[in-house]
Amino acid sequence: MTDHAELIANFVAVVGATPEQAEFYLEANNWNIDTAMSNYYDEPNADIASRTARSEASIEQEDYSEIEDDLASPSMSSTAAGKRKATNAPPGGRKGGIATLRDFSKDGTDDESSEDEEGQNYFAGGEKSGVMLQGPPGKKKDTNDIVSSLLKKAAEAGSRPHPDDEDDEPPKATYFTGSGNRLGSDEIPSVVVPATESGEPQRLERAVRTLTFWRNGFSIEDGPLIAFNDPAGREILSAVDRGEAPLKVMNVQPGQSVDVRVARRESEDYVPPPKAPPKPFEGTGNRLGGLPSAGSSSSGNSGITPGSFPSSGGSNPTNVPAPLRVEVDPSLPTTSIQIRLADGSRMVAKFNHTHTVNDIRGYINASQVGEASRSYILQTTFPKTDLTDLSQTIKDAGLLNAVVLQRLL
C-alpha cells in the first residue's frame, strides 16, 4: 500500500489530478504510472465520476443501472426525434419530376456517413474500473449502394410538385463585407477602413443537369463516360448523394442551384453524342503576300463583308500621278513583263526599255476597274525587292523579261 500511495502522490504531482483520478487511472493500468499518465492525457475531459470505484455493492448495482439507462436513452431519443420530424414534416414537399441537390441532402446522408466513419461505442467495467471501447468503423458505401440511393431519392422527388424560384433561399455573400483596420507603425497610426457599399449578391439562374446511368458507367449532360469503378467517378456520385454539385463536372458556379435529372438507361451501353458540325469561317482575311492596312484592322471598318479581302481607300502612296495610257513605240527596243496581280491573275504586257516603273502601275490601273484606288506596291520575285523609285526606267531597274508582283498595302 505504501508503494501505491507513493504512485498516487507522484501521479498527482505530475499531472495535477485529484487523488481519486490518480487512483482510478493507476488501477486501470495495473499501477503502471507511465501508461496511466498516457491514458490520462489521451482523455483529459473524460467523465471520471462515472468511472470511480464504489465500495458498496448496492452503489455498484445502482451505477450499472444508470449506465444501462444511458445506453438506452440515445435510441429512444432518436426514435422520438424521428417521430417528431415525421409529424412536423410539411405535407407539400417538392413539386415536379426533378430532384435537386437539396433533396439529396435532406435524407440523412450526413448522419449515415458519420455513423460509417465512426464505430459504435461500447462500455465495459469491472468491480473497480470502467472502460469505454470504440468499435471498428462501419462499412462504407460502395458504388452500387450510392447509385441505388440516388435512384431512390430521384424517384421520391419526382413524385412531388416542382418548387418555384421564390422558394429558394436568398443568395448569401461569400466574401467579407465589413470594415477593417490598416495596420500602422510607430510613426504612422492605424487607419480604420470603412466598409464599401456593395449591391446585393447576384442571384444565379438555376441550372439543370442530366445524370444518365448506363450499363458500363454514367455521364453528365453530353460529357464523357465515367466508369463505376473509377475512384473519381465514385467521388462524383458521393458528392451528388450528399447534395453537393462538383463545380467542374456540373459546370456551375459556387452557390448556384442545380436541378439534377436522373435518366436510367442501364440496359444500353454508352454511345458518344454526335459531334457538332464545324462552323464555316466568318471574318476577314488578307491576300497572300500582302499586309493588312491600318484601316482594315480598326473597329470602324464595318463595311467589310465576311470572307472578303480588306481594301484601302488610299491612292498612290508616293502621290506620283499614274499615266492614263501606255504607248509602246515599235521602233524602239521592247520587252515583255509578266505581272502577277494580288488576286492571283496574271498579265503579260509589252513595254519599251525607256518606260518607267510608274508606267507599269499605269498599265495595271487601266487593266481593271478600281485598281487606281487601291494602295499597293510592285516587287520583283527573286531577289524580292520593292520598286519604290517610280521614275526609274525598266532597263535600269533590271525588269527586262522579268516578273513583277503586286503587293497590297
Automatic annotation (TrEMBL):
Domain annotation SEP: ranges: 206-271
Comp. bias intervals (Pro residues): 271-280
A Pfam family annotated for this UniProt entry: UBA_4
Keyword S-adenosyl-L-methionine: no
Gene Ontology CC: one annotated term: nucleus
Domain UBX: 330-407
Keywords assigned by UniProt, alphabetized: Ubl conjugation pathway
Biased composition (Low complexity): 289-317
A single GO molecular function term of this UniProt record: ubiquitin binding
Residue ranges with Basic and acidic residues bias: 153-163
Location of region: Disordered: 53-187, 264-327
UniProt biased composition (Acidic residues): 59-71, 109-119
Domain of life where this protein originates: Eukaryota
Gene Ontology BP terms: autophagosome assembly; Golgi organization; membrane fusion; nuclear membrane reassembly; proteasome-mediated ubiquitin-dependent protein catabolic process
Keyword Coiled coil recorded: no
SMART domains hit by this protein: SEP, UBX
Name of this protein: Uncharacterized protein
Organism: Actinomortierella ambigua
